[in-house]
């Protein structure tokens, strides 16, 4: 399905680009043909990427935030724990295994670490508790903890408190149990890995289409 959609999209762009070249034949752009050729080569390389896996439901107790796949950023997962609301959003730190091709690297299909943000909020409270974590196939580790205004996203200028690893081990262990009790553990890794793969693949498809459309100056059929 993914390869078929990509092939159809690429062909439409190339048909459109031919019309664009005919319209601009009076003053040809010397870089247009090689650029379109490069886009076609890139499309062919992308078509060899393994199709993204079909997403399964996230591990309990989480559910997927509506519209998360369509947005460029923001929360991916949500759950409630008593009066608390826990939202999770994710970034990736991709490590491509040796011997993989450029297309595989572009897809980011080999991920060994995820950067995880965990926001814990309570109704009526002006601030929420934000955890910055590293998520791995075999566990989750807290990097930092801070209190932030509930209505604002995280900021790099926010005071992060003491370095987490400098806290007493009993306190570190208690915070670790705190987030794991709320479902933040290694069981999230397979789902979020697949989610990011699908997300990156969709972004690549959209990028190719939009760049080709801009260069040719017309919308593909």
TrEMBL record:
Pfam families: MAM33
Source organism, top-level taxon: Eukaryota
Cited Gene3D superfamilies: Mitochondrial glycoprotein (3.10.280.10)
Signal peptide: none
GO cellular component, one term: mitochondrial matrix
Protein name: Uncharacterized protein LOC105053477
Organism field: Elaeis guineensis var. tenera (Oil palm)
């Amino acid at each position: 399905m993914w390869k078929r959609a990509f092939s159809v999209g690429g062909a439409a762009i190339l048909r459109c680009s031919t019309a664009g070249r005919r319209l601009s034949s009076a003053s040809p752009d010397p870089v247009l043909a090689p650029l379109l050729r490069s886009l076609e080569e890139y499309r062919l390389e992308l078509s060899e990427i393994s199709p993204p896996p079909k997403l399964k439901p996230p591990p309990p107790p989480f559910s997927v935030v509506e519209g998360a796949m369509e947005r460029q950023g923001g929360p991916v997962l949500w759950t409630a724990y008593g009066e608390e609301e826990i939202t999770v959003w994710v970034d990736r730190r991709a490590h491509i295994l040796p011997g993989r091709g450029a297309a595989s690297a572009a897809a980011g299909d080999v991920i060994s670490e995820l950067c995880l943000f965990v926001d814990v909020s309570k109704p009526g409270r002006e601030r929420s508790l934000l955890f910055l974590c590293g998520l791995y196939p075999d566990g989750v580790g807290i990097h930092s903890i801070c209190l932030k205004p509930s209505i604002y996203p995280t900021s790099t200028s926010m005071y992060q408190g003491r370095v987490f690893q400098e806290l007493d081990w009993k306190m570190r262990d208690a915070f670790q149990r705190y987030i794991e009790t709320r479902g933040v553990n290694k069981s999230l890794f397979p789902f979020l890995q697949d989610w990011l793969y699908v997300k990156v693949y969709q972004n690549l498809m959209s990028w190719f289409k939009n760049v080709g459309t801009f260069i040719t100056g017309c919308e593909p059929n």
